[in-house]
Amino acid sequence: MIAFLRGYVAAVYDGAAVIDVNGIGYEVRVSGETVQRLASAGRDTEVLVYTYTYLREDQIALYGFMSREDLELFKLLITVSGIGPKGGLALLSVGTADDLRFAIMTGDSKMIARAPGVGKKTAERLILELRDKVAGMHDAEMMAIAAGASDGSGWDSLAAGGGTIDNTDAAAEAVEALSALGYSRAEATKAVRTARDDAQKAGTELSDTESILKAALRYL
Question: Could you give the C-alpha distances from 11 to 33, 81, 96, 174, 196, in angstroms and in order?
Answer without folding.
Answer: 15, 33, 22, 39, 29
